[in-house]
Amino acid sequence: MDETPLLSARQVTKEFVSGHRALDSVDLDLRPGEWTAVTGPSGAGKSTLLQLFAALETPTSGRVLYRGRDLADTDVDAYRRRSVGIVFQLHNLLPHLDIRENLEVAMYGTHLGRRARAARIDALIHDVDLVEQQGRKPPQLSGGERQRAAIARALVNDPEVLLADEPTGSLDPAQVQRLVALVERHMADRQMAVLMVTHDRDVAARARRRVVLDHGRLTEPDVPVPVGPQ
Ligand code: ADP
Questions:
Q1: Which segments of 131-208 are extended strands (E)?
Q2: pTM score of the predicted model
Q3: H helix or E strand, kind and range, residue 12
Q4: Which of 12, 13, 20 to mutate to test the pocket of ligand 1 (most atoms within 8 A of CB)?
């Protein structure tokens, strides 16, 4: 495994204008081919952490690095388009476009030709089991179908990192297994890194690393905490 972090949070603190501190001195590295699961109570800062790695928010202090370079000095539009795949909690699919069109829009500006794009969309729609539903628009889909469409959209540009906020909450156990297999295949084939917020213990158990956020502080319970001076 490549040990160079793809994304790093270095002493990241995020305070909103309300003065609320959602993240407090967070350090976290995401490495190629590594799956990190984030758990923690509601309001702990999990979504905020994902938004910072997705360059949708900026830290109040500290730095977010992509391949060692501060995201603040990076072309964040290109970074979001090419490097990250994001599954939002509320899906954020375009409501007036069907599933297939949602994936096509996500591929605008990529170097692939029409046929290659269509082939990739076909494969992903098959992988998430939405072949029959692909001509339907989000309001005509169940919560689980929307969630699967959002997962397909997040993977359609072969991202280096998948940032996913509770992507399995509306799925049944068989669909969860299918999703886990799909994510693991992308990790094995392309060394994709994964940061996934999840409350599903079985899903978290598949991750190589598990970190916990609580009141904006990040801990890694599987790793022994170094004993400091008493
Ligand atoms: P989680 O995903 O763990 O439930 P969030 O990251 O969504 O937590 O939120 C962490 C805390 O920051 C919560 O207390 C939330 O109310 C607050 N928060 C999130 N976004 C904003 C915002 N834009 N403005 C002010 N407070 C916010």
A1: 161-165, 193-197
A2: 0.92
A3: strand 7-15
A4: 20
